[in-house]
Please model this.
Amino acid sequence: MAAPVSEVSPVLEPGAAPYGNFPNYSRFHPPEGRVSLLPGGLLRSLFPAAARPLLGLDVGCNSGELSVALYRHLLGLQESEGSLDQPAAGKDLNLLCCDIDPVLVERAQQCSPFPASISFANLDIMDSSAREPFLSSYLGRFGRSTFDIGFCMSVTMWIHLNHGDNGLMEFLSFLSSLCKYLLIEPQPWKCYRAAARRLRKLGRNDFDHFRSLAINGDMAERITQILTKDCAMELVCCFGSTSWDRSLLLFKSNGSSYEGRESSEQEQ
Model:
């Protein structure tokens, strides 16, 4: 999935997507490989009494195939069902999906079967001057200051390679402060090496931070450590691994800051 950066090249050679903005990502990592690992009724079990609609944030949504598949799975909708078949879907869940690549976002917008309840936006999530007013405006439409659940599917490596150790930690800290639950699919370290190797084979410059990353090795474990030790989150569940060897990890905020915001919003 595409990770946020400052600029994106409009034309990419095969394999040369240094920000994860592959134009046909879902063809080699199909959405069902992830959603099949998630239990049915997950939202009901996580939010048994929460006010609806729930709000979700999908960071690095690429062209939206996985976002739509997650939406359908979480609401128990059939593959063929769209907003015309389920006009009330937006009353249960509204999903904001963002990506750095405007071409992929435009494709997602054109193909979305739920245009009223899934929003696709071109956004660099690492640009605080852009993300904060945009996300605040979206949340303000619902009288909210946080999301109920965030999705970060095969994005952390691209953040890490392009923004370094500090960028990865800042990214995880930001998401943990903004979402009560966070579902993350970290890329393993072998994917870092493969991404760097692809660029070198094409004669392009290596990632600026690759050779200096101190956060390395078992990336699922390292990201778990950052979220649990530095970001006031707890690991709720590992839903297993995809056929391409990536874990799906669910975290929950246990910080008082989120609890306080949630209480004040419910009183409004």
